[in-house]
Amino acid sequence: MSTAILTGQPVPGSPLEGDLRSLGFDVRVASDAADAEALLAAVPGDQRVAVVDARFVGHVHALRLGLTDPRFAAATVPGAVTAKPEARAELTRALRTTAGTASAGATGGVMTLAPLPDDIATAMESGATDVHRPDLGTLVATVPDDPQTRNEARQAVAAVDDEAVRLRTAVKSRDGFFTTYCISPYSRYIARWCARRGLTPNQVTTASLLTALIAAGCAATGTRAGFVAAGFLLLFSFVLDCTDGQLARYSLQYSTLGAWLDATFDRAKEYAYYAGLALGAANANGDDVWALALGAMVLQTCRHVVDFSFNEANHDAAANTSPTAALSDKLDSVGWTVWVRRMIVLPIGERWAMIAVLTAVTTPRITLVVLIIGCALAACYTTAGRVLRSLTRKATRTDRAAHALADLADNGTLASAFAAVGRRARILPAPLLAFLGGAAVVAVAAFTSYGSPWVVVAAVIYVVLSGLALARPLKAPLDWLVPPFFRAAEYGTVLVLAAKADVNGALPAAFGLVSAVAYHHYDTVYRIKGGTGAPPRRLVRAIGGQEGRTLVVALAAALLPTTDFTVALTALAVAVALVVLVESIRFWVAASQQGAPAVHDEGEPA
Q1: How far is the C-alpha of 115 from the C-alpha of 531, rounded, in Å?
Q2: Lowest mean per-residue pLDDT among 101-110, 235-244, 373-382, 409-418
Q3: Residues 121-130: tens digit of each pLDDT
Q4: For the residues of 442-503, what is the DSSP string, one character each?
Q5: What span, in angstroms and rounded, lies between the C-alpha atoms of 517 and 581?
Q6: How far apart are CA 78 and CA 82, in angstroms?
Q7: DSSP string, 77-109
């Protein structure tokens, strides 16, 4: 239960007390400033508290946005201010400060006391506290000074349907064409239906995951009926995937655990479906498309790490301007180009719709080939644009950005040792080192026979170059390319060597290994984006680092026969999965229980 302290008795007939109670507040009325301070001190320290002007007139949703959003320690709208437990001390200080500079009085026939919520919010900001001020748009939140302005404010409230505003703003402000026009027009109502029945976003997220897993199971049957059912279920899973975010925005149910589940389950759903297609192809006519399924996963994961690395590198860059960015902004001002550019990148909505339709009417092989071609074109478009922006902007990257890129690189003990050596020598640019090392190991694996010792030699070279790439802070314009090059090298090596083994089970085992490692890499991203820091170094060392795993897989291919190589890949996949899952689940559950800041990452545009 949260507590709201009113600065005097509300105007007769005002719905303010009822509105606050509907938002979960226990309402208390203060007779003067000293009483307000005493009531504030009496509220348990682990509860949210709000101070609300008794003259407040506005929409319930304006109060909801200003007083109940769990993402912010302190927030305000005109006439109301709130603080979570971590900002309570600052709220108390601001109340005392403003109480000493104002006096109680009657305004507009309503007895009010000093201090007023707007003054408290200003005092909190002057004390270096971040006070969130939500964009209310057409919603009304005001403190009238006289009966006439109160009447006008009430008319303004009646003129705007706050429920319609609440529904509209539950939808992402920036989304893909398919989601905007084919999903969101009705999924927002599903979100409201869920909210009114007490369902949480996490429950809807879980339902979306289960639906996608059932879809993957239907695809795995290899029958036409199974493929059709899989397509429909995948689309329904996407509807639920949109609904969980809309429910979070509609009801302001943001949480650290929920953001992690939403992001993680999205990847699990898509990659599990790729595996379902591979199993379905084998069951339908013995067609082996595991290499295509793994290739699609590798490509999609590398696309994501390009996005993450570029955004982290430029998250807080100074003088962050470029002619390319200006051109992009200009194109966004032309209506039709916005949708074309959003569709070209093949976001999750368009991508899942394409996969669902192709699954229902074609074969798994065609579905995966078209998916790979589409994702490859999208990757070329987005990566080229980001390279141009990086080369043309004059930006100074921060230590925080360089540290984030180093964490995303996922170098282990071996590479770290060579990084220490490289700090004392002149070396090539980091992206060039990462590219040369990755290209060497993947190319040698591809153009030599299975079991060739040259793969091990190339892997050793890759280990050395991986370390040298991180010998200097990653602050150069194109240094954000280092993590994507590392991902492509590690995943590509596993894919090529498993395909070269040419034995049943090798590619599925490789799929499992890449899935486990990709989970670790996504988990690293979500920790960084959530402001909680990268996974501990002990975890990275325990699973070998990206260069260590690449070297282990190369050694296994050189030393083991094909059947034993498959067993080795399976064992490595299980070991990595167990270690990273246990640590990841422990961390996110603990972070949620310990009150880590609630986050809501919009993630990949739907």
Answers
A1: 35
A2: 101-110
A3: 999 998 878 9
A4: HHHHHHS-TT-THHHHHHHHHHHHHHHHTSS-S-STTGGGHHHHHHHHHHHHHHHHHHHH-S
A5: 10
A6: 11
A7: ETTEEEE-GGGHHHHHHHHHHHHTT---EEETT
Closest-CA residue to 422 (of 470, 468, 473): 468
The candidate with the shortest Cα–Cα distance to 71, out of 164, 163, 134, is 134
Q: Residue 320: what pLDDT?
A: 54
Peptide bond into 115 cis (omega under 30): yes
Question: Among 80, 56, 53, 54, which residue's Cα sits nearest to residue 68?
Answer: 80
Q: What is the DSSP string of 152-202?
A: HHHHHHHHS-HHHHHHHHTS-SS--HHIIIIIHHHHHHHHHHHHHTT--HH
> pLDDT band at residue 604, thresholds of 50, 70 and 90?
low
What's at 44, amino acid-wise? P
178 touches 353 (CB < 8 A): yes
CA distance 525 to 510: 22
Each residue of 130-169: pLDDT tens digit? 999 999 999 999 999 888 999 999 999 999 999 999 999 9
Give the lowest-confidence range in 109-113, 279-283, 323-327, 384-388.
109-113
pLDDT band at 363 (very low <50, low <70, confident <90, very high): very high
Strand-pair category, 49-52 with 2-6: parallel
